[in-house]
Amino acid sequence: MGKPNVQIQVAGKEKVFENYTRGKAIKQFCRDCMGGVVAEVRNCTAERCPLFVFRPYSKNIPE
Questions:
Q1: Residue of 12, 5, 2, 45 whose CA lies nearest to 28
Q2: Phi/psi at 4 (nearest 5 deg)?
Q3: How far is CA 59 from the centre of its chain?
Q4: CB 10 within 8 A of CB 51
Q5: Vertex 5: Cα angle to 57 and 52 (nearest 5)
Q6: How far apart, in whole angstroms, are the C-alpha atoms of residue 15 and residue 27?
Q7: 8-53, pLDDT tens digit by residue?
Q8: What's the pLDDT at 11?
Q9: Do 25 and 8 meet the contact criterion of CB atoms below 8 Å apart?
Q10: In this structure, are residues 11 and 48 in contact, taking their beta carbons and an 8 Å threshold?
Q11: How many Å apart are CA 63 and CA 60, to the nearest integer?
């Protein structure tokens, strides 16, 4: 059995990830949002984004 499709919709951007886990879909969505640059995902300051606390490559998760 394959992985389910994950749909992410943030600030008018909607994307469906086929055969992705939820974590991998979030990672890919964040990378796409930041132009594919991992360092930019790490330095993201969009605290109002619902995925902000889940963003990959980050050590500083706000409380």
A1: 5
A2: -75, 165
A3: 15
A4: yes
A5: 30
A6: 13
A7: 999 888 899 999 999 999 999 999 999 999 889 988 999 899 998 8
A8: 83
A9: yes
A10: no
A11: 9
d(CA 7, CA 14): 7
Name the H helices within the chain.
22-33, 38-42
- Tallying the residues shown for the chain, one arrives at 63
Q: Contact 31/13 with Cβ under 8 angstroms?
A: no
Q: 1-35 b/e with 16+ CB inside 10 Å = b?
A: eeeeebebebeeeeeebeebeeeebbbbbbbebbe
Token duo for residue 22: 């939820």
Partnered with residue 13 across adjacent β-strands are 10
Cα distance between residue 7 and residue 25, in whole Å: 8
Of the candidates 4, 3, 36, 52, the residue with the CA atom closest to the CA atom of residue 44: 52
